Amino acid sequence: MKLLRIPAGPGRFTAASALMGRAASPTIWLVAPLLMVMSVGFDLPLIVMLGQSFVDSAGLTLVHFREVFEASAYLKVLASTFRIALITMAVCVLVGYPLAYWLRRLPARWQLVALAMVVIPFWISILVRTYAWIVVLGNAGIVNRALLALGLIESPLSFLYNELGVIIGTVNVLLPFLVLPLFAAMLKIDEQLLRAAETLGASPWTVFWRIFFPLSVPALAAGAVLVFILTLGFFITPAVLGGGRVPMIANMLDLFVNQMPNWDLASAISAVLLVVTLALFAVYLRLTRVGEPA
Amino acid sequence: MMLSSLRQAPSTHFSAMPPVVQFNRIVLALCGIGVLIFLCLPVLIVVPMSFSSSTSLRFPPEGFSMRWYAQVFADPRWVRAMQTSLVLALLSSTLALVLGGLAAYGLTRGRFAGRMTIQSNFISPLIIPSVITAVALYFALAHIGMLGSFVGLLLGHTLLGVPYVVLIMSVAIRGFDRRIEQVAFTLGASWFTMARRVLIPNLLPSTAAAWIFAFVTSFDEVVITSFIAGTHETVPKRMFNDLVMQVNPSITAIATLLIGVSLALMALAAALRRTKLAAPPSAPEVRPPVQLLRQQP
Asked: How many domains does chain B have?
């Protein structure tokens, strides 16, 4: 069945397959159950929520959005979320690129071990991975005790319940999202190109910056955008490692839904976050398409 | 799934490297190893801590004991949370598998308009921040008076599992030779007979993998659950609530149990995927980043 492969894409089917396929497989009816569940259970709630952000007792209005963008308290949370997302993205790029580059040259067996060390944490609950940092970074945690023992500091540094702790936790959770696709893209870079440059007299430095790095940029940019998008929606890590002192957009939503209900405001904030996420995701899709061979 | 496809490492070793290059390589290796340790640190810390015999959260743990596990299993609230988590994950992943599997077949084999749009819609819960989904579901369920109901919770978890099932099953079905299905039809099989006797047995590894992905996603889910679950308590939800309040050593035992469940299931999925490597390579790969998108934090 491998040898005789016929193209079975849309529009390229044979008459027989068209007859058989249509007669025997009610394809559209197979999609219908899930389509119904998704429309009623997912799309409709989202649309209703978006609608709510534009409506108040007097009819259509933008008043909720004005509230979000005029109150300094909300603006501050928006700004700090974007700042944390930017820093997280930058750290992931700076730390993830060398890792992916190093992975690429490892001998096959070690590569498998190293990749497992990237993939395994990826599949462990984010809650668990965030929780562990409390133990590692606390005042009596291993990092502080090691620094104290080495005489590098005199009193424990506070890593937790501030922006630094949130960023460390977020980078730890999101790094695989950048490293894995970047590594896959690096493997696709043609080794012959690098060797050709070397034969022509380029130094390893030049080969890297003029040939290798530019070829890896689309995947790097795509990974960076992905990390940025995911950080914007982070809820668990700021709640646990920020201890309520580093509110991000998602925690603000939690506040306006679960603690001091203000549904209109929550809808408007969700709408803003949704639009930003979708816009950036479009950028991400574009970047991943650039990275693919035409 | 990544592991197997990435194994062909470029094995160029440039001969006669100048010392500077050697030095750069050592620096690079140290960076790489440092980052790997950073990635694995949480797991390396939590698991040994859960066997500590002391009440302090110091690392390295002092003494060995199972007291935190004993404490967890003696607490009826944790046991009930485990039951809820398990039932919820089983039901939602099965529901996602059935609905998503049928839809994946329809989308892959069908030739109707709007397939791409529908597929994007099915995958969107993976891309939209789960806190937005949580808020939207909260409002919708509140409107119809079902906030805090098990059915609402089941819906939320099913939505999150659907994208994995649709992605994995679409790839699997596309890779399956269509003519084998047609032979079954020519021999007089109905669609359901064909699916039961031809398609499912052949796609069993992918089906199991899809089910496992959906299961793990539901089993680890926190955000939607803490918004809409009401009085229902799952293990991650209770762990999250306890963490925000105060840090209690028995949480290390819970964390280790969660790690164990995820890793055991993922290892199973990886093993199943390996057996599937014999499938025709014609299946266009799902772009890795989308496939890798996990449940959102």
From this structure: 1
**ipTM of this complex prediction, to 2 decimal places:** 0.86
Rounded CA separation A117/B37 (Å): 8
In b/e form, how buried is each residue of B253-285, taking b as 16+ CB within 10 angstroms?
A: bbbbbbbebbeebbeebbebbeebeebeeebee
Q: Are residues A255 and A273 in the same domain?
A: yes
> What is the pTM (predicted TM-score) of this model?
0.85
CATH number at A251 reads: 1.10.3720.10
Tell me, letter by letter, the H, E, C secondary structure of B32-68: HHHHHHHHHHHHHHHHHHCCECCCCCCCCCCCECCHH
With respect to residue B240, please indicate whether it lies within any of the assigned structural domains. yes
**Min Cα–Cα distance to chain A from B109, Å:** 7
Burial A114-126 (b: 16+ CB within 10 A, else e): bbebbbbbbbbbb
A33 with A136, same domain? no
CATH number at residue B213: 1.10.3720.10
**How far apart are alpha carbons A210 and B287 in whole angstroms?**
27
The answer to whether B157 and B218 have CB atoms below 8 angstroms apart is yes
Task: Please judge whether A30 and B118 are an interchain contact, meaning their C-beta atoms are less than 8 angstroms apart.
Answer: no
Q: For the purposes of burial, counting CB atoms within 10 Å of the CB of A279, is it exposed (0-12), middle (13-18) or buried (19 or more)? A: exposed
Amino acid found at B54: S
User: From CA A236, how far away is CA A245, in angstroms rounded?
Assistant: 13
Residue B6 within any structural domain of the chain: no
For residue B30, how many other CB atoms are within 10 A of its CB? 12
* CA–CA gap between residue B161 and residue B93 (Å, rounded): 6
B271 touches chain A (CB under 8 A): no
> Which chain A residue lies closest to B144 (C-alpha atoms)?
A45
Dump pLDDT digits (tens) for A130-157: 888 888 888 878 888 888 888 888 888 8
Residue B205 lies in a domain: yes
Single-letter amino acid, residue A151: G
The count of structural domains within chain A is: 2
> Do residue A42 and residue B125 have CB atoms under 8 angstroms apart?
yes
Cα–Cα distance, A101 to B32 (Å, whole number): 9
| Residue B235 CB neighbour total at 10 angstroms | 28
**A101 and A153 inside one domain:** yes
Chain A contact set for B139 (CB, 8 A): 45, 48-49, 52, 263, 267
Question: What is the per-residue pLDDT for A215?
Answer: 94
Q: CA A128, CA B256: separation in Å to the nearest integer? A: 8
- Residues 98-157 (A) with a CB less than 8 A from some CB of B: 98-99, 101-108, 111-112, 114-136, 138, 140-142
CB B186 within 8 A of CB A20: yes
Q: Over 50: is that where the pLDDT of B285 sits?
A: no
- A31 with A123, same domain? no
A241: which chain B residues are within 8 Å (Cβ-Cβ)?
A: none
Q: Which domain holds residue B112?
A: 75-292
The pLDDT score that the predictor gives to residue A290 is 66
User: Quick one: A37 and A65 in the same domain?
Assistant: no
Q: Are A4 and A117 in a shared domain?
A: no
Q: Average pLDDT in the A41-56 region?
A: 92
Share of chain A above pLDDT 70, in %: 89
DSSP B125: G
Domain span at A280: 53-291
Whether residue B9 is contained in a domain is answered as: no
